[in-house]
Amino acid sequence: MPATDSPAKAELDRLTAEFFGAFDNRHGGPADVGRLRRLMLPGGVIVVTAPRYAAYGVEEFIAPRELLLSEGRLTDFHEWETAERTEIADGVACRIGTYRKSGLLDGEPYEGGGTKTFQFARTPDGWRITAFSWHDEP
Fold this sequence. Notes:
This protein is an alpha+beta fold. It has helices at 7-21, 36-39, 58-70, and strands at 40-50, 54-57, 74-89, 92-105, 108-123, 126-136. It has a 6-stranded mixed beta sheet. InterPro entries: NTF2-like_dom_sf.
């Protein structure tokens, strides 16, 4: 059952925007990938299907991205959602959408996009991401 204008949908929109914002290191500011520890359940699952399949736990996912976004290789980076569809059923939700990303990788323009899916659960502390996966366009 799609939700378009509910308090839960507004919270999921905010949570998703905060997720994308975790990777932002534009204007010389540090990315805050560590915030994923708060946005996700500790046992969350992360999967990428392309360009190369891999599956991660939360900490396995965070560590290399913190390094990449802080060591100066990937700068002026951000990614953002371009379209989405969210379905909410009681205390669970699913979101699928497209996104774009842009920055400088090793001093060269770096751009791309793809599809991301999120699974959410309403916990006693509010909505949290239980899993997400993505597929980058070639």
